Amino acid sequence: MGTYSDSQLKKMILGQDKGTFDDRLERLRYLMSISPGDESVPFPSVVLAYYEEARLCWYHGAFVSAIVMAQMAFEELLRSHYRAIGINKLPLTGKPPDDANFVQLIKQAEQDGYLTVQEAKHIDKIRREYRNRYVHVKNAKIVDGKQDMKSSNWLTIGMKALCRNPYGDDASDEARETMCILVSILPDICIRNGGF
């Protein structure tokens, strides 16, 4: 990789902008169609940063990053809630909020009524069906002498992340659903609970 002049870098940026404009326009149109007015939502500061970054990743087509950032927004919201109300140890685990894993936080929040059953189900779907696939990539599985193309392995994840996946949803489809869950649930939880 060599050194590039500013004019070469600008040309690269303009070419990328032109080549991805229609896709970004479609994603922004979708995002704005499902987004509530966020200006009056009492987001905790770190949660807001993750929420905005997840949406920005989606808009720019960084689908795996959008999924991971959405999960982080929800996880930090739950941690922030327990910190703000002064819970030193979660009743279900006996762990401090900062030491609990995401599943434990979801279960505790549902039990406490901070999350509805449906919200917990949707948030856990992001964790289980989308985020975990990309964060916990495994070796390919062989079933009956053939590679299992439906398992979360380096080949299927690579196909999901880099191209349209002929074996099911790809990263863009999964990120689209994740964005829908993020923008429809996270602001409601913040509003309902006064930002913590």
Quick structural overview:
Helix content is 65%, strand content 2%.
Number of helices: 7
Largest sheet composition? 2 strands, antiparallel
How far the N terminus sits from the C terminus, by CA atoms, comes to 47 Å
Give the helices and strands as they follow along the chain: HHHHHEEHH
Global structural class: mainly alpha
Averaging pLDDT over every residue, what do you get? 87
What is the overall silhouette? globular
Q: How many structurally independent domains?
A: 1
- The tally of beta strands, per DSSP, is 2
pLDDT < 50 runs, ≥5 residues: none
Helix content: 55-70%
Task: Tell me the Rg in angstroms.
Answer: 19 Å
The strand order across the widest sheet is 1-2
Strand content: under 5%
Describe the structure.
With 196 residues, this protein is mostly helical. The protein has one domain (11-192). The protein has 7 helices and 2 strands. The chain has helices at residues 6-34, 45-60, 63-84, 102-112, 117-135, 154-162, 171-192; strands at 142-143, 146-147. A two-stranded antiparallel sheet has the order 1-2. The protein is globular and about 55 Å long.
Provide tags for this entry.
196 residues; mainly alpha; 2 strands; 65% helix; globular
List the helices and strands and how they pair.
Blueprint: H1 6-34, H2 45-60, H3 63-84, H4 102-112, H5 117-135, E1 142-143, E2 146-147, H6 154-162, H7 171-192
Antiparallel strand pairs: 1-2
